[in-house]
């Protein structure tokens, strides 16, 4: 029964994660409720996110939403950002990470009410004074803390006037990049419980494909309200986890 629960958890969490980020809102608490050790739960999420994120990116790449030529530079920036975040995390206390997470998510939430952009732009992602430090900073955040990384990326791409489907493709590529190293670490340190991880992975692959197909049909005006709901839920979860000592 727990294997079936993990499959559907992966499907639902990755569908949400593809559309607006925040899939960890669902997957991690469910895995902990099932009695899976915290490191094994995080590792399973990293492994499944690596594969499912790349499958979403490939789908949008094959359907001509983006080209690899315009997006490949996202990979090293996200990887370097994640490494930088991991180094900084070893220095900062958890209290400061908590404050940073809340600040960034609240800033993104408030900023979403300014401007009329609704992910209807036709811009391509290029290296400029906003995109480069923006992606690098979110990579650092992912290495530091993590929850809401995909949501923050979508806010950034919306600000850059990139269409919703392009934004998802870039976000999935960045997620793949940042999770790849983390997944390798959890595998090599022996924290992966493969029976659970494979069930979550199969569900995540299904959710990734469901998510991109739903995204193709969503009206742009729905995207920002969806992001705001996910952002508020992320802030609430982070505060609850901090107060409970998790």
Automatic annotation (TrEMBL):
It is a multi-pass membrane protein. It comes from the Bacteria. Keywords: Cell membrane, Membrane, Transmembrane, Transmembrane helix, Transport. Its main location: membrane. GO terms for cellular component: plasma membrane. It is found in: Cell membrane. The lineage of its organism: Bacteria, Bacillati, Bacillota, Bacilli, Bacillales. This is Probable membrane transporter protein. PANTHER family: MEMBRANE TRANSPORTER PROTEIN YFCA-RELATED, TRANSMEMBRANE PROTEIN YFCA. It holds the Pfam family TauE. The chain crosses the membrane at residues 72-91, 97-115, 169-187, 193-214, 226-244. Belongs to the 4-toluene sulfonate uptake permease (TSUP) (TC 2.A.102) family.
